[in-house]
Amino acid sequence: MKQPTNSVFPPTIFYSAQDSRACVPVLLETLQQAMADDAYWQPLLANFKVSKSNTIHLGVFIEPYLQLIIEGKKTLESRFSINRTAPYCKVQNGDLLLLKRSGGPIVGICQITHAWSYTLDATEWDTLKTQHAQALCIQSPAFWEEKKKANYATLMKVRHVRVVEPAIPFVKSDRRGWLAL
Questions:
Q1: Range of 166's domain?
Q2: Which of 58, 106, 143, 147 could tie 168 with a disulfide, CB 3.0–4.6 Å?
Q3: Does residue 178 belong to any structural domain of this protein?
Q4: Spatial contact of 66 and 107, defined as CB atoms under 8 Å apart
Q5: What is the pLDDT along the chain (181 residues), one digit of tens a residue?
Q6: What is the DSSP letter of 49?
Q7: Which residues, in sequence order, are CB contacts of 43 under 8 Å at separation 6+?
Q8: Are 111 and 95 in contact (CB under 8 A)?
Q9: What number of other Cβ atoms are within 10 A of residue 33's Cβ?
Q10: How many domains does the chain have?
């Protein structure tokens, strides 16, 4: 899918499941421009343009979790699923995670430093709850109750969180909360 020419920065990025990688070049270029003054992100993003060893992921976030990641209070991201869907076994150390506000633009970026995928059973559930609730910023028992139907979980430690300014409009038509671009 060819990106429309747009002289406005940042351009709107259009994602299509039929051609999921078509938006990556424009997205990387836009991120590089947005991070032009960042000594950490600028070379890393430039390397992503030439390297094929890591993946860019886009996670859709709701509040308060989005703000907690941006503030550095939430250092561990989780995704639970009934089926083996991304990011389960699709994310690895060094991958990039774009933080997209639910129904809105990409507002942040971070790097995944560690990733763990679990097939859930009673022991794994207890481990997740007792060992990771603080880093996940889970304070409500309702969260765990809501996720108890899940068979799979992925935990990702994130660092180098940076707000993307200006936010990047990102249009996708599906309801998935995670994309591996």
A1: 13-173
A2: 106
A3: no
A4: yes
A5: 444 454 688 999 999 999 888 999 999 999 999 999 999 999 999 888 767 788 999 999 999 999 999 999 999 999 999 999 999 999 999 999 999 999 999 999 999 999 999 999 988 888 888 899 999 999 888 988 999 899 999 999 999 999 999 999 999 989 999 999 9
A6: H
A7: none
A8: yes
A9: 13
A10: 1
Q: What are the C-alpha distances in Å from 169 to residues 17, 42, 151, 159?
A: 17, 20, 33, 23
In-domain check, residue 88: yes
Q: Pick the closest to residue 94 from 45, 153, 34, 39 (CA basis).
A: 45
Phi, psi of 157 (to 5 degrees): -85, 130
Q: Amino acid letter at 14?
A: F
Residue 6 lies in a domain: no
Residue 180 in any domain: the answer is no
User: Which structure tokens are listed for 109?
Assistant: 């970026």
CA-based nearest residue to 106, from 46, 51, 168: 168
